[in-house]
Amino acid sequence: MRTPTVLDIGTCEFETTPLTTGELVAIHVYEAAVAGSGIRDCFDSFTVESARDHETEFGQGATRVMLREYARYLHTWYLALDALLGDGLTCTAQATRYSTAMTRYITAAADDYHGTRQDFEHTVTTWTLALLASGPDADYPPPTRTLNLPMQTLSDE
Predict the structure, then answer these.
(1) Residues in CB range of 12: below 8 A, 6 or more apart
(2) pTM score above 0.90
(3) What are the two backbone dihedrals, phi and then psi, of residue 9, each rounded to the nearest 5 degrees?
């Protein structure tokens, strides 16, 4: 399970020009579509274990339906992020680039979406193939994202 990476407005505006009213509106619309609708929250506890528990309680067919619904949530999230890209660009004084604060926000929002999508894909793959997802007997690799050379590890952060 991962921690959302979306930054607060104050962090995005740190030591740079504040977000414009138009940029704030674009962010507000994005957040309403993703967080306000509950889409982001539904992935907070979505794990292989929760998919297996769902299957045990409701059956394999119902779990497939649930996974398709989660895929639709991700599509809605993608569309909101895509709209943010367009709306955020047109809010700057120069409509050909993003402000520094908007760049920070969009980057964090995209990281949050992509990380969530990767977690979803890992869970679906592991559940679909009925693979073990953790522990010493795991037969599917853990969901890693980065390489930490000093620690000589692959990390999920």
Answers:
(1) 19, 101, 102, 104, 105, 108
(2) no
(3) -60, -40
